[in-house]
Write a structure and sequence with these properties.
Number of strands: 9
Shape: elongated
Strand order of the largest sheet: 4-3-8-9
Order of helices and strands: HHEEHEEEEEEE
Largest sheet: 4 strands, antiparallel
Distance between the termini: 71 Å
Number of helices: 3
Length: 168
């Protein structure tokens, strides 16, 4: 009599239906867990040109950007530095222009070169430029909508906005 219950088509169909139902439930549970996984961290690469204009101000032009997945090592080092005259400040801003993160960009007009002189010893030379190209590599805050770059002027209290780049 036991064999007859197992060979019954209704029992077999009910058993297969139950197995399929369990398979669907477990897949559905997995898909809800993937929604809870945090977004992967992103790095943004930004390229700009900057030049001194005759009235003493600076003109900056955005070239391009690239966003990629990843995480920077020691990405807070430049944010802990104090800016000096000639440096630039880079701010990551949210959609209401609130500052999310700040980074110091060392003076892009000053370049330091190392070279070997005639006596075969290393020398350093600092050159002041009228125009320059510079790149930024930043750990992108997920709420960042804009990147804003400001000039640090001679008076420490004066920060002059140069450019505001929208990321979308």
């Amino acid at each position: 009599m036991e064999k007859q219950k197992l060979n019954n088509p209704k029992t077999t169909i009910a058993f297969l239906f139950f197995i399929m139902l369990l398979g669907c439930v477990s897949k559905q549970g997995l898909s809800t867990n993937t929604d809870k996984i945090e977004k992967t961290p992103k790095i943004i690469f930004l390229n700009y040109t900057i030049k001194k204009i005759p009235d003493g101000n600076k003109a900056i032009r955005f070239i391009d950007k690239k966003v990629t997945e990843g995480k920077l090592k020691n990405h807070n080092e430049n944010s802990k530095q104090d800016p000096v005259t000639g440096d630039l400040m880079c701010y990551q801003l949210d959609k209401k222009s609130n500052i999310l993160q700040s980074t110091v960009i060392k003076n892009p007009f000053t370049k330091t070169f190392e070279f070997v002189d005639a006596s075969k010893s290393f020398q350093m030379k600092k050159i002041d430029l009228d125009s320059s190209r510079f790149s930024l590599r930043l750990q992108l805050n997920p709420n960042t909508e804009y990147i804003s770059i400001h000039d640090i002027s001679d008076s420490k209290n004066k920060i002059i906005p140069l450019i505001k780049t929208q990321l979308n």
